[in-house]
Design brief:
It contains one helix and six strands; from the N terminus they run βββββαβ. It has one helix at 77-82; strands at 18-27, 36-39, 46-51, 57-64, 73-75, 92-97. It has a six-stranded mixed β-barrel.
C-alpha cells in the first residue's frame, strides 16, 4: 500500500470490523474531548479501534483527516492516555474499523 502502510502481520483483535492499516500518530487537539482519531485511513466518520504498540486497544470514533494516505494521524488526548502513550511520542498504531 502507498505510504508504507501494510495489512501484513496484523495483531489478532477480537470483534468484527476490518483492518485499515498502520499509521503514525501524534497528539491531536487537546481541547477537543473524547476518544477519537483523525486519520486519512477513513473517508467518513465511524466507530473503530486503535491498537497501541504494546497491544492495548481502545475504542474510538474514526474521523477523516483529509490528508493523503500515509500522512499520519492525530489521536485525542484521552485515547493517547488510555493507550499509555507518551504525549510527545510518534508511535505506530494499528487502526481497525468497526463500521
Amino acid at each position: 500500500r502507498p505510504g508504507g502502510e501494510t495489512a501484513e502481520a496484523a495483531p489478532e483483535v477480537a470483534g468484527e470490523g476490518g483492518m485499515l492499516g498502520f499509521t503514525v500518530v501524534s497528539l491531536g487537539d487537546a481541547s477537543v474531548p473524547g476518544m477519537w482519531m483523525e486519520t486519512p485511513l477513513v473517508t467518513s466518520e465511524g466507530p473503530g479501534r486503535v491498537v497501541g504498540p504494546d497491544g492495548r486497544t481502545v475504542a474510538v470514533t474514526l474521523r477523516p483527516s483529509g490528508g493523503e494516505r500515509g500522512s499520519g494521524s492525530r489521536l485525542s488526548l484521552q485515547a493517547m492516555q488510555a493507550l499509555g502513550l507518551d504525549l510527545a511520542s510518534l508511535p505506530t498504531v494499528t487502526v481497525i474499523s468497526d463500521a
